[in-house]
Write the structure tokens for this entry.
Amino acid sequence: MQGKRGRGRDGRKGALLTLHPDTTPCESPVSTTLEIVRIPVLSDNYIWLMREPQSGCVGVVDPAVAAPVLAEAGKRDWKITHILNTHHHGDHVGGNREIKAATGCTIVGPRADRARIPGIDVEVDDGDRYRFGEAEAEIFFVPGHTSGHIAYAFRDQRALFCGDTLFALGCGKMFEGTPQQFWTSLSRLRALPDDMRVYCAHEYTQSNARFALTVETDNQRLAARSAGIDAARARGEATVPSLLGEEKETNPFLRADVPSVQKAVGLLGADPVEVFAEVRHRKDVFR
């Protein structure tokens, strides 16, 4: 049921988002889907509960706490078989041991951070392919927010679980990495297809939009997206997942090599790493 090769805008709690991969007549149909449930916890965290229906594998991505996860899985009669961790922060691994004790699940996490992932069983690294039932995740090593951060990209199912590296209209704070590392990490995620859905771990989108508008004041796509986000939040709806394509058009942290962003921070023609560092600094002090 598991192994390794190589090294919805519905704001309701527990809303089910089923990903049906697209195919064209010249493509072989993909073998499976992922049923993905958003579980809001703490003040602004999202835990992702997902099921691969052919095998019955059920995974939890970055469980901050255990009780809501176990309750949601129990309500659906889903048996948790995996935990997928992106990094070591407590609001991403805090529920690991309790869920493992209750279910006997396998905990998967970054090899570079194995000493800081509670209960880790399987270590994965950049370029690995991890089988989750009939689905497969490509592992990306994406340091910046932390030194050992990884992301799981289910290409066939168009699902990117990126922890705190990439947010809707933002990116994580640079706690342990360097601007060069972080920009490289974001650039690698940016190269994924536009129709990938970005399953990040926090509901920060509205404040991220307010900041983004101070950088790209003339970006009409950003202005329209920000208005839509305000309306969604006023209705109590979630803004995650987002589409990677819209992040490429509106997220300033993915656009450090775009002249309009460079000009906005007074660094037209500069190295994108320098531009990214300046945008990150501005966000750090933004209120």
Observations:
- Residues 67 and 187 are 36 Å apart (CA to CA).
- Residues 220-234 form the longest helix (15 residues).
- The radius of gyration is 18 Å.
- DSSP finds nine helices and 16 strands in the chain.
